[in-house]
Design goal:
The protein is of the alpha+beta class. Helix content is about 65%, strand content about 10%.
Length: about 450
């Protein structure tokens, strides 16, 4: 039973070694390269960019509202009497007209196009920043998972050595069967734990490659280090005061409020009279001959249209104007709510950083203690002063401490990226402003 188990675990280790050798031939992917690939390939970002381009094009051509309507026509007529019979006659006509309508709401509509372009531009920037944050945090999360695989692989090797030593001591009568079985069990469960970590890493790595626009099966391995820089943040009230209005959710609501006000203004102005200028020129065939001395006429017109129905209480136009005003007022109320939620979000992001920072200090201390305890336990075990159970517990505590510190480091880095997103800053700007080493 023990021999079979040992062969199975040895085969498992061989698979992991082959997988590691395979990764040596894979292409390395740094964070910068991953971000560049994602920005080029992400479909949502491309859609947002196209929307922003279209809105900007409409804004730049807002002058076309004042472009007159121009038309031309040409026709030939053949008159052929049927009863009583008569002569056939041909005639032709040609004409052109130009019409220029002007309304009081045209200026408001022009401003609306400007805010529409601004809103689309802000949406594109937010999509881009969100993608950068997502790719960056996922990148470091997968790096942490890969490092966890290395921790578990090292742990498997340690447990293998402990099992071999316990088996040898048992055969020589220096260890009990219980100690040998405990070391065998510890070695046995270490293999599946490592296998689960490898599978999780490969699954998340594949999902990450799809996120940035690569094939999930691409021979790509992430390359980088989890470099944690501590932040020395000012009071959270200062951050809220400085960056709250800069956030996308707040600024987008400000733009929405301006658009609502302009829509209400345009709705009110639509009840005002509109004026239209027109000029038309017509040419026609003369009474004698088909092309000799054509007859030409011109007509200039000016008209004023008064939308009387919009002044009738309860009419659809009147109700629409009131609705637009109410929408503007409601958007203003929503802006205040968005600001409060944004401030609370910044508070939460800062609290998360401070919480993880405190955990980092204890996690680092726990690792130093656990590592030293394992060293002493191993020495004591070899000298016969420490039991196999105590050695396994010391090793388990050390592995847990390594994993905890790794997870906490990755969590702190993610929290910094989340704070940068909450402040609408690039990660480099956050480090430049608030990293401890710059203070």
């Amino acid at each position: 039973m023990g021999v079979i188990l040992l062969k199975q675990i040895t085969a498992l280790i061989t698979i992991f070694i082959l997988a590691g050798l395979g990764s040596l031939t894979a292409e390395s992917l740094t964070l910068d390269a991953a971000l560049d690939t994602a920005l080029k390939n992400n479909a949502d970002l491309k859609k947002s960019e196209l929307t922003a381009y279209q809105a900007l094009r409409e804004k730049k051509n807002a002058w076309n509202q004042f472009l007159p309507s121009i038309s031309a026509n040409l026709g030939v007529t053949n008159t052929h009497p049927i009863q009583p019979a008569g002569d056939l006659t041909d005639s032709w006509s040609a004409g052109a007209s130009i019409n220029l309508p002007l309304s009081a709401s045209m200026t408001a509509n022009t401003k609306l196009l400007g805010y529409k372009a601004l809103a689309a531009e802000e949406a594109y920037d937010n999509t881009r920043r969100t993608l950068i944050t997502q790719v960056s945090t996922n990148f470091y999360s997968i790096l942490a998972e890969n490092l966890n695989v290395e921790i578990l692989r090292s742990d498997l090797e340690i447990k293998k050595q402990q099992y071999e030593l316990a088996s040898k001591n048992f055969k020589n009568g220096l260890a009990s069967e219980l100690e040998m079985l405990n070391s065998q069990y510890a070695y046995q469960i270490a293999g599946p734990a490592l296998n689960d970590a490898v599978v999780k890493y490969e699954q998340n790595r594949s999902a990450f490659l799809l996120l940035i626009g690569l094939e999930a099966s691409a021979a790509v391995e992430l390359e980088g280090v989890i470099n944690v820089k501590m932040l020395d943040l000012p009071p959270v009230e200062n951050l809220v005061s400085r960056y709250c209005n800069n956030r996308y959710d707040v600024y987008a609501q400000v733009i929405a409020l301006e658009q609502a006000k302009l829509n209400a203004q345009a709705g009110s102005l639509s009840r005002a009279p509109s004026i239209s200028f027109g000029e038309s020129v017509n040419l026609g065939s003369p009474q004698t001959g088909f092309l000799d001395d054509p007859i030409s006429t011109g007509r200039f017109s000016i008209s004023v249209t008064i939308p009387l129905s919009s002044w009738i209480p309860g009419s659809s136009q009147s109700l629409n104007a009131k609705t637009l005003k109410e929408n503007a007022a409601q958007t203003g109320v929503s802006l205040d709510t968005v600001r409060k939620n944004a401030a609370q979000d910044i508070h939460k992001k800062v609290d998360e950083i401070e919480r993880i920072r405190e955990n980092l200090e204890s996690a680092a201390l726990n690792l130093r203690i656990a590592s030293r305890a394992y060293e002493l336990s191993e020495q004591g075990y070899r000298g016969g002063l420490v039991s196999q159970t105590d050695l396994q517990n010391a090793n388990k505590n050390m592995v847990n401490a390594k994993q905890t510190l790794l997870t906490t480091n990755a969590g702190y880095l993610t929290a910094v990226y989340n704070l940068a997103a909450a402040l609408r800053l690039d990660i480099a700007e956050v480090y430049e402003l608030y990293a401890q080493e710059n203070k």
